[in-house]
Design brief:
197 residues, Rossmann fold, 7-stranded mixed β-sheet, 42% helix, globular, binds flavin mononucleotide
């Protein structure tokens, strides 16, 4: 939640285990865009998500990484979910992380309630960019979150970062819009909370 300084917390979840993962990098750039607008950030990317066990409602006690991720989302004002498009939808790695948000079921703000969620997709074709964006937004709706109006899709077969890991102005601009919408919603929620709503 917004801290004493008034800085909202934006938590990023996503990426892949690929050595040069486009989605890991896009998530990082998206969080940097939020930081530039005054956010505090935390992230859980491919390598961390890969140590999560497959979520089972009646499974073992959550692992330390799972607890850390869930605690971060519990405290978050906004969330970014970044995924590669796998066969037209989000990857199993990212879906399993999203499934872990079931641990927020009994919270005062259950699941993603009251949080704006920005979605970033990288896929090797435009069709999967679109279908994956819709599939992630559907999961966010199921979790009571508020998908931002603007989503970021990157065709990784056509749009590449430079040697410094920077994307062109089209992608950078899109990430900036996404970050601005997350911050705008977080500001609205903070004002409403302050007014007792
Ligand atoms: C198992 C698998 C399934 C994929 N399915 C699709 C697909 O249906 N459509 C598509 O455009 N790209 C597909 N891709 C390509 C990835 O979406 C693309 O390479 C993406 O940029 C990978 O992200 P990453 O670099 O973060 O790992 C697939 C890749 C894998 C490994």
């Amino acid at each position: 939640m917004t801290d004493a300084t008034g800085a909202p917390l934006v938590v990023g979840i996503g990426g892949s285990t690929g050595a040069a993962s486009t989605t890991n990098l896009l998530l990082r750039r998206g969080l940097e865009a939020a930081e530039a607008l005054g956010a505090r950030t935390a992230s859980f990317t491919g390598a961390q998500l890969a140590v999560l066990p497959i979520f089972a409602a009646d499974g073992d006690a959550p692992t330390p990484t799972a607890l850390e991720m869930v605690a971060a989302v519990r405290a978050a004002d906004a969330v970014i979910i970044a995924t590669p498009g796998y066969h037209g939808g989000m990857s199993g790695l990212v879906k399993n992380a999203v499934d872990h948000l079931e641990l927020l079921r009994d919270d005062e703000r259950p699941y993603l309630d009251g949080r704006a969620v920005g979605v970033i997709v990288a896929a090797a074709g435009w069709q999967s960019c679109g279908t994956t964006l819709v599939s992630v937004r559907s999961a966010v709706h199921a979790l009571r979150g508020w998908p931002t109006p603007f989503g970021v899709t990157v065709n990784s077969a056509e749009q590449h970062p430079d040697a410094d890991g920077r994307f062109d102005e089209r992608v950078t601009g899109a990430l900036g819009i996404l970050a601005a919408q997350l911050m705008q919603f977080a500001g609205w929620r903070a004002a409403a909370r302050a007014a007792g709503r």
